[in-house]
Amino acid sequence: MVEVTKHGIILKKTDNSFEDMGVFNPGIFQDDNTVHMFYRAMRTGGFSSIGYCKLAGPLTIVERSKEPLFYASNSYEFQGVEDPRITKIEDTFYLSYTAYDGINAFGAYAISNDLKDFERKGIITPKFTFEEYSDLIKKNSDKISESHINFYNLFIRYRLGDLMKGKIYVWDKNLVFFPKKIDGKLAVLHRLYPSIQLLYFNNPEELTVEFWKTYITNLYKHIVLFPEGQQESSHIGAGCPPVETEDGWLLIYHSAQSTPEGFVYHACAALLDLENPTKIIGLLKEPLFSPTETWEKEGYVNNVVFPTGTAIFNKNLYIYYGAADSRVAVASVNFNELMQELKKTQK
C-alpha cells in the first residue's frame, strides 16, 4: 500500500459567528505556490456558508477572511451552501456546492473570473420526489445493482413521502467538475445513491425534466464507480476534482462504511480513462486512509475523513479533507507511488 503522511489540523473554527460550530470540507485551487481554500463554515444552528483562506505552500495559512465569501441567498439554500469544490476550466472558475434547504439537498454551482465575485448558475441536479425517482430507477432493474433500487423501495413501502407531504426530493450531492471539457462538454461527477455518476452538458438549460427522466431510466450507462468492498458497504461519492495525468484521471473520492456504531468515512483512490471516465483503469481495493486520529474520530460527526481538494508540491499529492465534520486537515502521498499502485490494479 501507499504510505500516507498525516500533517494534522490546519484550520479550526473561530469565534466569528459564521464559523463558530466548525470548518471543514474545503475546495482547493492551487496557483503555483499559493493555495486558495474555500471551506464550509458552519454556525450555530447548523447553517453553512463558504469561508476563504490563502496558504503559502501546502500547509501555511497566510490570510483568512473574517466574513463568508459565499453564502445562502435563495430559498433552496436556506440551511446553507455546503461542501464546496473549486475547478478552473479554461479561463473560468467553477464553484460547485450542495444547496440545502433543511430538507432537500441538490447540486448547484457558480462561476467566477477572479475567485472573488461569483455568479450563481443554480441547481443542475434532478428534482424528483422519491416516488417519482423510484419509478424511473426501476426501469434499470435488469442492468443495475439492486442496491440502487432497494433503498427507494423501502421508502415507498413505509410511505415516508406521506410524512413530508410530497416535499422531500431525492438527494443528489458531491457535484465535482472535471478541470477540462471532454468531447467539448462540461463533465461533472455527482452522486445519486449509492454510486458515482457522470453528467455531460454545455448549458444548464439543457438539463430539463425530460433530460433527467431519460438519464435516470438509463442510469446504468452513466455510472463511473459502484461501491465495492467492506469500506464502501453503504455508499460512495466524488471527493476532489479529478487530476489529469498521462495515465488517466486520478480521482480521490470518499466511501461510507456501514457499521453497528454508524458510518465510517474513508478516503479512496481510482484511475479513470481520459477520454471515457466511466471506464475504470485502476482502483485501490483498500482505503487510501481512514479515521485513525482523535481529531478524525471525534467531532460534530464522528469517524469522518472527507477529501475535497488536492495540491501538488515536490512530487507529493496533498489531500485536504474534513475531519469529523469539525476541522480541516491535510494528508499527503508520493504522487508517483500512488500512480504506480493504481496501475498495478489495471482492469
Radius of gyration: 19 Å
Order of helices and strands: EEEEEEEEEHHHEEEHEEEEEEHEEEH
The overall pLDDT, averaged over residues, is: 94
Class of secondary structure makeup: mainly beta
Number of strands: 21
**Poorly predicted ranges:** none
Shape assignment? globular
How much of the sequence lies in strands comes to 35-45%
Largest pleated sheet: 5 strands, antiparallel
Q: Determine the number of helices (DSSP H or I, runs of at least 4 residues).
A: 6
Q: What is the CA-CA span between the terminal residues?
A: 18 Å
Overall helicity: 10-25%
Task: Give structural notes.
There is one protein chain. With 347 residues, this protein is mostly beta strands. The chain contains six helices and 21 strands. The protein has helices spanning 130-137, 147-157, 160-163, 209-217, 294-297, 335-344; strands at 4-11, 22-31, 34-43, 47-56, 60-64, 80-89, 92-100, 105-112, 119-123, 172-177, 186-192, 196-201, 223-225, 235-238, 243-245, 248-259, 262-272, 280-283, 305-313, 316-323, 327-334. The strands form five sheets. Strands 14, 15, 16, 17 and 18 form a five-stranded antiparallel beta sheet that branches. It has a four-stranded antiparallel beta sheet with strand order 1-21-20-19. A four-stranded antiparallel beta sheet has the order 2-3-4-5, with no helix packed on it. Helix 1 crosses helix 2 (147-157). The longest helix has 11 residues, at 147-157. The mean pLDDT is 94.
